[in-house]
Amino acid sequence: MDSYAHAQTVNIFIQEIEHALGLGPTKQCPLREFLTIYIKNIFLNQVLAEINKEIEGVTKASDPLKILANADTMKMLGVQRPLLQSTVIVEKTVQDLMNLMHDLSAYSDQFLNMVCVKLQDYKDTCTTAYRGIAQSDEKLVISASWAKDDDITRLLKSLPNWINMAQPKQLRPKREEEEDFIRAAFGKESEVLIGNLGDKLIPQQEILRDVSDLKALANMHESLEWLAGRTKAAFSNLPTAQTTLCLLSSRVHCFHYLIPLAKQGNYAIVANVESMDYDPLVVRLNKDISAIEEAMSASLQQHKFQYIFEGLGHLISCILINGAQYFKRISESGIKKMCRNIFILQQNLTNITMSREADLDFA
């Protein structure tokens, strides 16, 4: 997509100019202001026009299910089975839009909407093409009719060959008891299909006689499975980055409060009212941890919530132990105050993780 390459180059160029001029986030160079207007008024429409032209060029062909990607494309993608040229173009379009979402993040909503619309359009294209094969004279061929039968599809998905297709394993000799199980399972399939047909004859027009139609269906299957995998992989990186950022943010809060506590705190104190108080930095850290806990518990599944907080006690312990080198002097009252600080943090984390934060005992 030419527009993507140009936008990426200009964006990098502007960043270099702003860095050279020492401009902060509150002041932009005139070129960036021009680019913002250009993107809103021209670029977004230009991107949409380009992807429409690319996709329609392969999906509006007379028989899109018969046009396959060439050998060089297949080799570059590292796939072993033919893919539809239309699927390859759609996947490339999705990747280009994902790159634009990253490089022009202020417009990520618009680019994401384009991704969703194009994927839905392609799904509709494939559905129409499938119906063109599965229907004869406005009536489903018998195999397509059976494919829509819930009882038949439920049975087929329980058979060994479906399981092997969905989760392929290396070929290995079958043990005798496995063969008996498989034979019984396929016997059930035969029984259901024979019972479903009864004593009816199948008219010629209800059979898929053209093998090229079956080949087209097989190509569509491999292509859509590949597209689904690539799209899922592209989007799965986003939630991974988000949970990682949440985890690291909780860690950064600990560094933010506890390093000054060690470097600037006064623990060479005598026994007085002040020595009985928690350190203000610890109180603020505890408040932040509780706020993060409240936000995460309302938003994340339990195992992901646990991921954010597990190990936090160990990090706090390490920061405090490493920070001890900065204490020039520490009195008995100072030790007691630090113990109270550790205890309140330990108590809060224990309530969050529902397990005793033993790592803080070492601090």
UniProtKB/TrEMBL annotation:
It comes from Mauremys mutica. Keywords: Exocytosis, Protein transport, Transport. The keyword Protein transport applies. Component of the exocyst complex involved in the docking of exocytic vesicles with fusion sites on the plasma membrane. Belongs to the SEC8 family. This is Exocyst complex component Sec8. One of its GO terms (biological process) is Golgi to plasma membrane transport. It comes from the Eukaryota. GO terms for cellular component: exocyst; growth cone membrane; synapse. InterPro entries: Sec8/EXOC4.
